[in-house]
Write a structure and sequence with these properties.
Layout (H helix, E strand, L loop, with lengths): L1 H7 L5 E5 L7 H14 L2 E5 L14 H38 L7 E5 L5 H11 L4 E6 L13 H8 L4 E5 L13
Parallel strand pairs: 1-2, 1-4, 2-3, 4-5
Length: about 180
């Protein structure tokens, strides 16, 4: 009977962990890392940068577009480096809880420019992720989740398993610096 159950549940070999880079979103990464270790899976980290739209006169459009493209590229590089640095520091702290090698669980870091829901769904499909892990600040029902209604919208629009992790409040008692 146990073997039959295992055959019915698809294996988890790749997990998409979407983050808003808040301090407490690290809590959801603990779950993604634990799940990856238990299933011998890899993690794809995604942090979506929402595009900013500006209104400006048409005669300035070429120059303004060039400035915005340069700023977007610089922001992307900064975000990617920040995520890599934070991941290494965080993994060093949690390896005593989940065991090494935390950083080796991560196969890819994505920092796309776009709406978070669309980018999460796109990455989950394109990277062949079997499950999605998201954190929510737990302010009421799913409609008030991290980055607005991202977790709720992802949950409604995907056919993949979605693990929504309630995050501690910013004023919570978890001291991430001394984990």
């Amino acid at each position: 009977m146990e073997k039959r159950k295992r055959e019915m549940i698809p294996g988890i070999k790749k997990i998409l962990y979407a983050t808003d880079l808040s301090k407490n979103s690290s809590y959801a990464f603990l779950y993604a890392a634990d799940m990856a270790k238990r299933h011998n899976a890899r993690i794809v980290i995604l942090h979506s940068v929402e595009p900013v739209y500006y209104m400006y006169p048409e005669e300035m459009s070429g120059r303004v577009d060039a400035i915005l493209q340069k700023a977007k590229k610089e922001e992307w590089v900064t975000d990617l480096e920040e995520i890599k640095k934070y991941l290494q520091e965080f993994c060093n702290k949690i390896e005593n809880q989940i065991g090494p090698p935390c950083v080796d669980l991560v196969s890819k870091i994505l920092v796309p420019l776009g709406h978070p829901v669309e980018e999460i769904l796109k990455a989950a499909d394109e990277d062949g992720c079997d499950a999605i892990v998201l954190g929510t600040h737990g302010k009421g029902f799913l409609r008030h989740t991290f980055l607005g209604s991202v977790a709720g919208d992802v949950l409604e629009r995907t056919r993949k398993p979605v693990f929504i992790i309630p995050l501690p409040s910013e004023k919570g008692n978890i001291d991430w610096d001394h984990i």
